[in-house]
């Protein structure tokens, strides 16, 4: 092993520690695979266990820390991130592949939510309830769970882990973070913000490793009370089985086949801009990325002609180049999975309008670049309509009516995000009523998720805490109301 290669360390019990692991995963710049940034250890089980145990020890005092003080830690970490924003953005570009503009947006979004979450901690408790018994009242209060494991994905290497850390910490939990192997440098900067902000020893811990090894060890540890995971469907399925065996709390986020419907009365310029951003922003690597567009027949040809023209103008390259419009996929596996789906769709009768191949230009040949791809005439039964293609791949289905569009959009029952472009208020609201999606976007890109929305913030606060009821008698009363 070369001595000049950075070997990432774990952060356990307030100390940065070299790992005894003999296996390492290379941290490769996806825009140039010859650029080895460092190597992340595939940590052994003992390290994951040690992180969980120091988190248990730290929990007993951290849970007693008043919620406003826990929020203050998050606010201090956010301020440090703001001071380091440009450095962190450039790290994200180099190891994840976003453009610099996209990375800067991720950093600023992270800071904004951390400030919201840290400030909200002061008001994050229960309610007082008048009881039927005289001289009695009741109130509810939040209780932390204990140790939580965060297994985070590469598509949002800063915003997701920072937000989940903030949510878990303000609730009074201690955390063991296992970041994506593709983005260990970003994870290190993130954890340093919390460490430098004064996080007590053992409250925030970082362990590098594989999901089915290090992550599995954390899920199996008896002290770990909840696991949040983002990543591939295979990783999530394995983690879910483990968590269910222990009847522990479990939450996940994965890429989904998020649909956008464009009706015949839509503002086509607005729809084109939204689909372009939703499908090809961050090279299509987001859990809210647009993966299917459902077009009404009267506008389909004109819409696709202009969309293909705009997609073909996207300049590919390193995100550090300000002229670049789209960066690479994060790794080779994503390209191969995407190409498999495209090839199968072609064999089933779909038509590739653009892309569908790796970029072979001399300047791009050493990176993980997939040309932005649009696959037309996709039928609902095709695999590409049922499985999200990683990377910049958009599947197109043409329909004759709003009812048919709605049927196709709701075919998968539940998706992360869905959108519609129309001027018709009744059809907007019908779409909102019918879609089983966590987020619905009207005349807006599906990648506009805001963490402070209650469906995001409140749901995660509820996930990372438990509610308990307290009953108080302050006078003689008249006995039980029942």
Task: Describe the structure in your own words.
The chain has two domains: 6-254 and 452-470, Aldehyde Dehydrogenase, Chain A, domain 1 (3-Layer(aba) Sandwich); 258-442, Aldehyde Dehydrogenase, Chain A, domain 2. Strands 15-16-17-14-13-18-19 form a seven-stranded mixed β-sheet, sandwiched between helices. Strands 10-9-8-11-12 form a five-stranded parallel β-sheet, with helices on both faces. With 482 residues, the chain is of the alpha/beta class. It has helices at residues 45-62, 67-83, 85-96, 100-120, 159-170, 184-196, 211-220, 233-246, 268-280, 297-312, 332-347, 383-386, 402-409, 425-434, 457-463; strands spanning 6-7, 10-12, 15-17, 24-28, 36-41, 128-130, 136-144, 147-151, 174-178, 204-206, 224-230, 249-253, 258-262, 290-296, 351-354, 373-376, 393-399, 415-421, 437-442, 465-473.
Could you give a quick summary of the protein structure above?
This protein is 40% helix and 22% strand. The chain is an alpha/beta fold and 482 residues long.
Category from helices, strands and their pairing:
alpha/beta
| Domains (count) | 2
Q: What is the helix fraction of residues, given as a range?
A: 25-40%
Distance between the termini: 73 Å
Radius of gyration from the CA trace?
24 Å
CATH topology-level fold name of the largest domain: Aldehyde Dehydrogenase, Chain A, domain 1
**Number of beta-strand segments:** 20
The backbone outline, from C-alpha atoms, is globular
- Strand content range: 15-25%
Low-confidence stretches: none
The neighbouring-strand order within the major sheet is 15-16-17-14-13-18-19
- CATH homology superfamily of the largest domain: Aldehyde Dehydrogenase, Chain A, domain 1
Q: In CATH's first tier, which class of the largest domain applies?
A: Alpha Beta
Please outline the major beta sheet. 7 strands, mixed
